[in-house]
Structures
1.
Amino acid sequence: MERPAARAMSGSVLLLACGAIGRELARIRDLNGWTHIRIRCLPASLHNTPDAIPAAVEASLDALQDAFEHVFVAYADCGTGGRLDRVLDERGVGRLPGAHCYAFLAGGAAFDALAEEEPGSFYLTDFLVRHFDRLVVRGLGLDRHPGLRQHYFGNYRRVVYLAQTADAALRRQARAQADRLGLDFHYRFCGDRPLESALRPVLEG
């Protein structure tokens, strides 16, 4: 389903965002001089429990929405099965397009090509590389139960690192993480342009 039309906004804007892309959003905002944008982030760990995302977004909107002239949500559906859209539709609030953040971080066409090339791909971003142990290893219990690796990742064939920055240290970490999961490694530099392109029609007012 298409989200509410992206229209130019002026005045104060709340960008309610997933914490996993907060650094990228702040960088894009500052580089574009979007001084009217205020970013508030929800915990990135919600991605491990996507059923909790709609309620968390709803509570934040109830607390913050009246303080801003406009609100936009920097989430995709993120595994909520349309329930996030129902929360946003009730309030007339738009969000980023797509089913998950990897599509708008890579760009829709580029992500579709990667998924078609190898459906069994596990995707990493700069944030996930930095916080791999906390969100993936400990978050999924692999530190306590290593045997779960086959349960979680047995149907994957490769790790695809969608890099937002050309950071050699992060690239090495991502490769080591792929080795740890026993998967092939594929690197794709995306930069901030795909996410910026998704935000610009909405936030540049």
2.
Amino acid sequence: MKTSLVSREVGTVVSKITALLSATSPPEIVLNRHCPECEFHDRCRKRAIEKNDLSLLGLTDKEKAKFNRKGIFTVNQLSYTFRPRRRAKRFAGRSEKYHHSLKALAVREGKTHLVGNVQLQIEGTPVFFDVEGLSDRDFYYLIGLLVGSEPAAQHHTLWATEATDEQKIWRGLLDILSSN
């Protein structure tokens, strides 16, 4: 590589850094897949949530710029653009394209949305369980368990009154699961 090309690249990078350092406002928030490794991850994420920024959806810079050109700058704005459509029969075998607007809608409503006809096939014995605990004490005190399906479903509740009983309820859970 020629030195003139390298010096030109270095010059543009230095000018960008100078502009960032001399600016009175902080740079634009961009969350990406490397963020969990950064020491400022929590602060940036909090700011992005406050601003309702599109980078919360994991968009690339190109996708974000595309939405910005259309006048969409927040997750809330993007969520209103989702419109479910009927698929043509000729596309029935293909998978549905990914909709960022549907993900934005799910974030806004706090729900999980599924695209298409989802068929759940549960083979074997279905098991549903719920664990209650105190996160500040790292203590789990209740396990609720439903084994099987109606009308022959078995309901179990396992309680721990003290931290020493916690190991007993986990063993009880394993015993119930291994007996079915």
3.
Amino acid sequence: MINYPKVSVIVAVYNGGKTLEASLKSIQKQLYKNIEIIIMDGGSTDNTMQIVVAYKDMIKYCESKKDKGIYHAWNKALQHVTGEWVCFLGSDDEFSYTDAISDMVRLSQKSDCNFISGKMEIISSKGAILKRRSLGYWCDEKVAKYCSSWGFAPPGSF
């Protein structure tokens, strides 16, 4: 039996008017459809909230008020999550292909892991790949070992 667990995608944003729409479009293009989107805006003064309104049909929850930064925003969002998996994005993060979430869910069903990290690329504003990380999926003991020594990037991780 195939399980289609809900994936909660939390997007933290502050004055992300130049990048938020591309981030939301990358979520919208995902072929995996059991997704909820939670937007935590730090009180933007640019056109961020106009973009949120334009995508309101795909957003489960949005809050716009001053916060203490991206990690504070992500943590505040957790109280609104109803998914079995959580993915944290910044407003300038995008899924690079339409099966990104499907692939992560598929990995989650191959083992009893509760943390999965996919391939991540850091790309310059001109489109050049600056850095790549391909970490695969991790079980608890690997998370403890590797995260304590060098950390991990939240985007691309479930």
